Amino acid sequence: PNPRTIYSNHWAVRVSGGPEVAAELAGKYGYLNLGQIGNLENYYHFHHSKTIKRSTRSSRGIHNFLIMDPKVEWMQQQEVKKRVKR
Amino acid sequence: HVRTDPSLMHFNDPIWSNMWYLHCADKSSRCRTEMNVMAAWQRGYTGKNVVISILDDGVEKSHPDLIQNYDQLASYDVNGDDYDPTPRYDVSNENKHGTRCAGEVAASANNSYCIVGIAYNARIGGIRMLDGDVTDVVEAKSLGIRPDYIDIYSASWGPDDDGKTVDGPGPLTRKAFEDGIKKGRKGLGSIFVWASGNGGREGDYCSCDGYTNSIYTISISSATENGYKPWYLEECPSTLATTYSSGAFYERKIVTTDIRQRCTDDHTGTSVSAPMVAGIIALALEANQQLNWRDVQHLLVKTSRSVHLRAPDWRTNGAGRKVSHLYGFGLVDAEAMVVEAKKWKTVPVQHTCVGASDKRPRFIRANQLIRTSSHTKACADNNGQYVAYLEHVVVRVTISHPRRGDLQIFLISPSGTKSQLLGRRTFDYLNEGFKNWEFMTVHCWGEKAEGEWVLEIQDMPSQLRNPEIQGKLKEWTLILYGTAEHPYNPVSVQHSRSRMLDISATDLEPSKAALFQSHLEFIDEEEEYSGLCHPECGDRGCDGPGPEHCLKCVHYSLGNEKIGRKCVTTCPSGFMSDAATRRCRHCYRGCDTCFGRGHNQCSACKKGFYLQLDTSTCTLICPAGYYADEHQKRCIKCHQNCKKCIGFPDKCVLCRDGFSLLGSLCVPECEQATFYNTALMRCEKCHATCHSCTGPGKEQCTQCAKDFHLHEWRCVPACSQGFYSEDVPGLPHKVCRRCEENCLSCEATGKNCVRCKDGYSLLSGSCVTNNTCNNADEVFCNMVKSSKLCERKLFIQFCCRTCLLAG
Q1: Distance CA B573, CA B78 (A)
Q2: Distance from CA of B330 to the nearest CA of A (A)
Q3: 8 A C-beta contact, residue B446 and residue B319
Q4: What Å distances lie between residue B307 and B228, B276, B304, B334, CA to CA?
Q5: Alpha helix locations (H) across B384-493?
């Protein structure tokens, strides 16, 4: 069988307008904003503690509302990737 | 010309002597110093003011060999979201990888501990990101930690190397790479070094790893001490260069730092090679801090050499550079890197020319080759995109296919350089094909881009497939990267390697020149030698005192022009004396002595190999029907009845068909109810009670005859008291089983007892003790009754008799 995708309870969200807008959005929909993703401007790391940590199904519900928010330009639920040391 | 003299540099680090890939202290063993690291050190470059970070499972910052060069600002714990990259310790030392890689790069020198790092004065940090769920966010964060501060990111991990995975960076990680090369190092571009992959044994191909296959990463592969492909190495055309690494057990390994403040001599895999190159790049950056990310790739292409690395596919590309799918442009050369870096002029700006996508669908039929071509002017009509001289070439393809691993893809450049973009992968049974997958090759580096590019796709089924389901090439696009002008100063292009290594005191910064002038030995090529020659030269002259300086040899010449020759009295182990040419010729791999160079001309084998006399070959594993004799180092034939034996010809563990194992002997299989009598060498009848046996006695039955019962390992006509008879599927006879405890005789099924031992009474088919419970009052008995405990065998001893007697 093909390896199945495993979804985590972390999201990457692209929001313009700075960290305040990102923080406001995270709070509005019940996410914890873990800050900007590395050096990538306008990309933020959101965490949702009430979503199952690892699942073979992508999450819906509240997350659908976030993506529909006009301030959110792009959003992606994070998939757990298999990475091996060489 | 600078001569490296190891005696001029000595370190007190205890494992320095084991660092065979850096120096050659022991003249009697092979020298593998072609990476020329010491020569770069002797020029004064040790990685000072260069910052490297290891993206891995953490770095033990308190390790005595790392603490001096450890840099807090080059470190972060992405898994724990703090600034401490210390690995998580567990009993299996799972998280040792990052610390091992870090030591290779920047272990301190002369601190009496472990080893010497290649850039032993560089700053080293660790980004702990592999000890948790790895996501696109985690990777993107890790690659973007302090890009203006960290010069080199070294990563020795990637998608599974299982030979069936096709995976690469997600959108955020791709963006992190792009941002890194555009903005990192204050606009010069971050340098990402990557291990090419360990899936050699699984037949993996590193083009299926989107990290090593990226134009932004410097993909590094490995060669064994003897210049062979290590068992773990993956091939692909995006590999840029190679370092020595580990190989077979009889070849030397790499030493480095280990967690728990230890040292190790057991670090293997391509993760050995990526940090080595990170260290060498650090030396080049010290020589020239203004190198951008593409300058570094150009330097590697220009200075890496094939030396004695053995690959079947070394070829010279249209720009005159030797390249292979195993080793890229070859073994890195630290000295050449620093020398070139010092005088390097930044290459012209990178142009990208994206060709038109060819969306004409083409079926890929099994066992056939499809060929499609694209003529390109390399965007000559667009100043900002024109690519005259190539760097990376990318082919983006979308293919559907019922079994992806059966596909092979090739790209042929206008100059005729053929890159294998994809090799067959036996384990890749997936039907996912490739969706906009970008295959990358560096094999056309330096060639002219304009002209006809040919894409070839071949489908070679590895097993029976439904002929009605065919693969289909849906779309492909050629993407050319390079420059509009020639990347190098035309004058320097003509420099030979010896010219390239020219050095004068003015090339060095004043402080370094003063420090290292005494270490440099300048040789005047015109000066004639007039001293005594080595005895092995005889009277035939020499240009120096050593056996390597002879003009001709009295006895035998050992070595070659590339690695150097010397005269010897007798040829060493692994060589044969060719009296006709007076040369020591290499025996075949594994041969210690030989009478010819062929694989079947060995007369004794090296350690770990066994001689097979009838074929005169040396093998690691003796074939079926032979055993490996450790004393004689030979494959000895087993007894003719043995299929497999251990230690002695007649100590069989597996027999040929028609024979069966009796102890350690293979004896002929006898008919039913007979056994093989080893004294009389014939089959004889078993006892009448046996179905099969090992001897004539009735105690030697292995199975009982029909109508007999196996009872206490004997065959008896009926079971004795306290036992019942039971059929066992697959056996010709019945078996006597014991009735349940305290039962004298039971029903044929064995479930219900019919007679109990003294002191026990029959209750519901079980024997319960005659003793009474002293705590069985009315309430208790009601509970026992209501729970129906006495109907269950497990609880039948549970005061049931007492409660029943009490009514």
Answers
A1: 52
A2: 20
A3: yes
A4: 12, 18, 9, 14
A5: 490-493
User: Please, which residues have CB within 8 angstroms of residue B771's CB and are 6 or more apart in sequence?
Assistant: none
Tens digit of each residue's pLDDT (9 = 90 or more) over B136-153: 999 999 999 999 999 999
Residue linked to tokens 């050995």 = B272
Best probe of the B interface among A34, A44, A74, A85, by most B CBs < 10 A, is: A85
How far apart are the C-alpha atoms of B556 and B570, rounded to whole Å? 7
Q: Over pLDDT 70: what percentage of chain B?
A: 93
**Cα–Cα distance for residue pair B591/B598, rounded to 1 Å:** 10
Contact between residue B441 and residue B335 where contact means Cβ atoms under 8 Å apart? no
Give me B51's structure tokens. 């910052």
Whether B766 is a known active-site residue: answer no
Angle at which helices B171-183 and B136-143 cross, to 10°:
10
Interchain CB distance below 8 Å, B172 and A40: yes
> What are the residues whose beta carbons fall under 8 Å from the beta carbon of B183, sequence distance 6 or more?
A39, B147, B148
Decide: A39 and B144 in contact? Cβ < 8 Å: yes
Q: Under DSSP, is residue B286 helix (H, G, I), strand (E, B) or coil?
A: helix
B157 has a chain A CB within 8 A of its CB:
yes
Contact in structure between B441 and B393 (CB atoms under 8 Å): yes
ipTM score above 0.90: yes
Contact B309, B326 (CB under 8 A): yes
Q: Rounded to whole angstroms, how far apart are CA atoms B93 and B78? A: 20
The 10 Å CB-count burial string (b at 16+, else e) for B122-133 is: bbbbbbbbbbeb
The 10s digit of each residue's pLDDT in B142-186 is 999 999 999 999 999 999 999 999 999 999 999 999 999 999 999
**CB-based contact B677:B665 (threshold 8 Å):** no
DSSP per position, B388-411 = SEEEEEEEEEEEE-S-GGGEEEEE
What SS3 class is residue B82? Answer: strand
Residue B56 annotated as catalytic: yes
